[in-house]
Amino acid sequence: MTESIRKIRKVWKSEPTIEGAGVHLKRAFGNYQVPMFDPFLLLDDFHSDDPAHYLKGFPWHPHRGIETITYVLQGRVEHGDSMGNKGVIEPGDLQWMTAGSGIIHQEMPKGDSDNRLWGFQLWANLPASHKMMTPRYQGILASEIPEVTMNGIKVKVICGHAGGVEGPVRDVIADPEYLDVTVPEQAIFTHTIKRGYTALAYVIDGEAYFDGERNAFGHDVVGVNYFDLERRCECGPENLILFSDGDLVSVTTQSKPVRFLLISGKPIGEPVAWYGPIVMNSQEELQLAFEELEKGTFVKKGSEKRDTL
Hints:
The protein is mainly beta.
């Protein structure tokens, strides 16, 4: 059977928003797109060289029922939690935190010597069977993330497989794949993604065609200026691409290289009840979570305490 190339289902432009105690960031997708990105819930791009836009950070707050994945390109993120864990996520590092039954933590961004901060946070949902699992961390150093080079194309394999290499993040629930891909100019990148899995790309830098048909009218477009008729099918920085189903993703560059995150995962297909940093399956479960926060019983016994990034 001939393998099919995934077409673009929809393209967005990330939107400015403020979270935490005053962190300015760009939201690629979030609450309003549920369940379109199932099993993923949110993707934020925090990118600034103004300390006033990030130093107040994300003070103590709870999470339950999800996984938060923080990937830093520039600057660093200091973190700590209610179980005594603490550490720093440095450039190129990634932290995969499974909140499970509940954790209270804080994340405090810091700029580099030029005040630059750049990174991403992805939220992945957990199925009902794992909502109340024991919280855990997978802290991955930049040196532990393999980079595969194929015909000038570079792929950092954070989770999943590419070029015969497996990423260091393993034993995660939604069978996700998380790749950081750089494609030089005048090149084609293709990658197999399991049929039926949700697949998305977020452009970090440069531009490329993410649909072989290059048909600007073949998909929905939100917040993207496509009046340039010759270039309207090319996606550039801060563009989010959601793919339709198929076997392969194909990305083609012309006069510029492109760097993007390529993320995929197995849909959960369950009800989503979401309030702030807590995501469950019902309003009753949300209410219970906040009642436990008030009573001081939110963090369950048996939660792991260990030093992490």
